[in-house]
Design goal:
Layout lengths: L7 E9 L3 E8 L4 E9 L9 H12 L8 E7 L2 E7 L3 E2 H7 L6 H20 L2 E2 L8 E3 L5 E3 L6 E2 L20 H4 L8 H16 L9 H12 L29 H4 L5 H10 L10 H4 L27
Antiparallel strand pairs: 1-2, 2-3, 3-5, 4-5, 6-8, 7-10, 8-9
């Protein structure tokens, strides 16, 4: 494909991201529908925003069926235009506007797609750091793909370098981040995955605080006060001594996820662990018995086909 602005016919505005406008367009020579993400460079001397550069680098590295594609990019005046795969809708819309379509077989299939994309990212030592329903988009074939990699970073399995703890949207943020951890790995994504799978099943967020402190309080209240056995080293985290919470016993998981089958609870529990080292990997989760019990995951032909349009 020849990426020149004259080769595109803009079909409409999809939305507005953190760094600019997003348009649905058609590549005239091929007829392919794409999304054009127009990023304004406010000061040419400052160059491209660091989050945009990280997203570009990550998308160039990650070529997976379950991760949104970056076709190319080109300058346009004081802007940089990213040519992205066009995505018809997203998981957030499915949860909030089409709940009747999220049957358990379809939830299982979306969960498998999310896990396959996450497995691929982690196999290439990339952590997303902001997995949430709004960043999981769905194309016209019904395939779910991970998008918005502006916070993505390379990591080393043995740690060794600090990162910002101000990442991940609050409801999906791992407790070590809420306590200000600067050294962490891809395990923060796995906590988010567990929250997302639980939300798909129940149609409600698993933990929904209105502030960072309330978010942490909700997690501790439901999972119980951590100990050195359940969470080794937690008392050494940077913000641990800044606030204290009442002692609490863990809420039984059948009460936290009422009406949810035991296999599904076991899978969610395997992600929602204080000790990041004990969280199940995406690769291991794909072999979980939940995906092998009835109702089985839906086939692609049985998945809903979105008709609205968005991208990140």
């Amino acid at each position: 494909m020849d990426y020149d602005v004259s080769n595109y016919s803009v079909l409409g505005r999809i939305g507005e991201g953190a760094h600019g406008l997003v348009f649905k367009a058609q590549h005239i020579p091929t007829g392919r529908e794409v999304a054009l993400k127009k990023i304004l460079i406010k000061n040419i001397e400052d160059g491209i925003p660091v989050n945009v550069m990280r997203e570009i680098k990550a998308l160039q590295l990650l070529r997976c069926k379950y991760i949104i594609k970056l076709y190319d990019m080109f300058p346009r005046g004081m802007s940089l235009v990213l040519v992205l795969e066009y995505m018809s809708s997203g998981l957030w819309e499915m949860l909030h506007h089409n709940q009747h379509e999220l049957t358990l077989p379809r939830v299982k299939t979306y969960a498998q797609m999310l896990l396959k994309g996450t497995r691929y990212m982690h196999a290439h030592y990339v952590m997303h750091r902001d997995l949430k329903p709004a960043n999981l988009l769905i194309n016209h074939e019904g395939i779910l793909k991970i998008a918005d990699l502006g916070l993505a970073r390379l990591y080393w399995p043995d740690g060794g370098r600090p990162y910002s703890h101000q990442v991940a949207t609050r409801w999906y943020r791992a407790p070590e981040l809420l306590y200000g951890a600067r050294f962490y790995t891809e395990k923060v994504d796995l906590w988010s995955v567990g929250c997302i799978i639980a939300e798909m099943i129940t149609k409600q967020p698993l933990f929904s605080g209105e502030s960072d402190i309330e978010q942490l309080a909700i997690v501790l209240r439901h999972l119980g006060t951590p100990t050195e056995e359940t969470w080794p080293g937690h008392s050494e985290l940077p913000d641990y001594h800044k606030i204290s919470f009442p002692e609490s016993a863990p809420t039984p998981w059948p009460e936290l996820l009422p009406g949810v089958e035991p296999d599904a609870i076991h899978l969610v529990k395997s992600f929602i662990m204080y000790d990041e080292k004990k969280r199940i990997s995406a690769k291991e989760a794909l072999r979980h018995s939940w995906f092998e019990t009835r109702p089985l995951p839906a086939t692609l032909e049985e998945m809903p086909k979105p008709i609205s349009g968005k991208t990140k």
